[in-house]
Amino acid sequence: xxWQLSAADALHTLLRQPRLGLVTDVDGTISPVxxxxxxxxxxxxxxxxxxxxxAHLALxxxxxxxxxxxxxxxxxxxxxxxxxxxxxxxxxxxxxxxxPEVDAYRPxxxxxxxxxxxxxxxxxxxxxxxxxxxxxxxxAADPDAVESTFGSIVQAIAGENGLDFFRGRRVFxxxxxxxxxxGTAFRRLVEDYALSGAVYLGDDVTDVHALRAAxxxxxxxxxxxxxxxxxxxxxxxxxxDASDILLPGVPGVEEFLAWLLSAVSASSx
Length: 269
What we know:
By secondary structure, this protein is α/β, with parallel strands linked by helices. Helices cover 41% and strands 22% of the residues. The protein has ten helices and twelve strands. The strands form two sheets. Strands 5-4-3-2-1-10-11-12 form an eight-stranded mixed β-sheet, with helices on both faces. It has a four-stranded antiparallel β-sheet with strand order 6-7-9-8, covered by helices on one side. The chain starts with a helix and ends with a helix.
């Protein structure tokens, strides 16, 4: 547990916070990355630990680029707060809600989907999440070539339809041009649940906004938040740069969750 030694002071301060929350990404964090995005599964150990932490923390939540319905079903922990489509959808104690600005962009998402279908290459998959699109290319014959050449095609289609374009790990994303992301979603959770301490865990470029938000919240004194990055062979440099702590893959996340559960269980006895 090198991370526990290197961040001992920060972790000790975190545990002293009276209202502590945990917010985690899904794919690549509590679910191993697989070639088929529809086959991804949260590990049984991560699911078990998240369920147990619910009894000890003021908030346990997941944030994902997946749709909120997909997130809830895939994580499979009743009562968890779920945020989907990078913050555009939320499912919490008040039920399901969608950012009101999103509806106006549904026709643009549909038009972009129609434009993408005839040009994608073998092995590429379009994931239609109703209010956003993801184009996965991990299983293409040459993913590196797709990244360097096909991205401009997807970006052009996004621009033609008034959508924003993003790159992730072996994925292109098209989203409505709305100032909502995982960082704004994380900040909203901290505020809505009056958290004095919080952890954000994530592994990809889409998590960087939330990792940076955690550090900004801590620096401002608004909440003692820690940015916890998850490493793999494909970890973007921006994730490493934005993280206070780095965990070795999904097993490292499970180790961290187990440590946190042990620590907060001990403090409540």
